[in-house]
Amino acid sequence: MVKKNRWGKKYKDKRDWKSYNKRLVNRGMFYINPVFLDTWLEETKAMNHGKVGQPYLYPKSMIEFLSVLHTKNFDYRGLEGIARGLSNRLGNFPIISFSQIRKRIIELKYSFSPKKNNLLVAVDGSGLKVSNRGDWIRKQWKIERGWIKVVIMGDEEGNIVDIRIGNENLDEKASGRGMVRKNHNNIDKFMGDGLHDCKDNFKLLDQLGIEPVIKIRKNASTKRKGCLARQKEVLTYKELGYKKWAKKKQYGKRWPASEGIFSGVKGIFGENIRSHKTRYMYHEAKAKFWAYQKIKDLGA
């Protein structure tokens, strides 16, 4: 058999395995680390200040702890068992039922924000499956359940700045513009693939004083057509060619700010959604990205 030469340069693994192994160990400690026991009384006291009706018995940090485990595919009854086991071994604290766990997790508000100013950000979209069926079943039985579309804005360090979640018809370009408007005070440079090569994006970035680093389509016209900002970028792109343009604009930094985040989330938490109602699907999808950012913040 003829041996074929590998396309491109030979891959060199430059990963710092000592540091990577330490991160994986820290990640395991993060999953089973009931820090809520240290702040239980203070948290519940603050949560119940001015509250009308039945007071909260379980702190928010406990629910967040269980929510992370839920993203790792533990069901609600399994989470009750984990809480019961920790109570028996560590502190004999009140046991929360699986129905209460579900209610409190659904009520959690997951949020994201920029980590600093002068950010280089990228916007990209990807999908999560709403069932574990393979393509063969979809084609054979003609069962179409759609999928959940997630559009994220990330920075060059791999942090999630903002997120939008919807069905497969979610407009990635419009979602990107919405996130830019919300976070523009923290953004210096915006990166996007060829999908984001449109006049509306260039006009918005020009108005907000943000540098565009958007891959131009091959058949892009060099005429102004009502958008001077895009015309300038098209001319620069065509003059330099893709490789020189990408090097000059540091386009390679788009990967850790977009596709790298999707790769990390799906690798750690999977790409399947177990909920059935639409709003719970969106909440579960958002929880995966929130949990990933929690791990990222702890250096795990």
The portion of residues forming beta strands comes to: 5-15%
Low-confidence residue ranges: none
Tell me the number of helical segments per DSSP (H or I, 4 or more residues long). 13
CATH architecture of the largest domain: 2-Layer Sandwich
Structural class: alpha/beta
- As for the CATH topology of the largest domain, it is Nucleotidyltransferase, domain 5
* Domains, number: 2
Under CATH at level 1, the class of the largest domain stands as Alpha Beta
The strand order across the widest sheet is: 3-2-1-4-5
The shape is elongated
- The gyration radius over C-alpha positions equals 23 Å
- The CA-CA distance between the termini, in Å, is 44 Å
Helix content: 40-55%
Molecular structure report:
This protein is α/β, with parallel strands linked by helices. It folds into two domains: 17-107, no CATH class; 119-297, Nucleotidyltransferase, domain 5, CATH 3.30.420. Helices cover 50% and strands 13% of the residues. The protein is built from 13 helices and five strands. It has helices spanning 17-31, 36-47, 60-71, 76-91, 98-107, 135-141, 172-183, 199-208, 228-240, 242-249, 254-257, 259-269, 278-297, and strands at 119-129, 147-155, 160-167, 187-192, 211-214. It has a five-stranded mixed sheet with strand order 3-2-1-4-5, sandwiched between helices. It is elongated, with a radius of gyration of 23 Å. It starts with 16 loop residues before the first helix and ends with a helix. The relative contact order is 0.12.
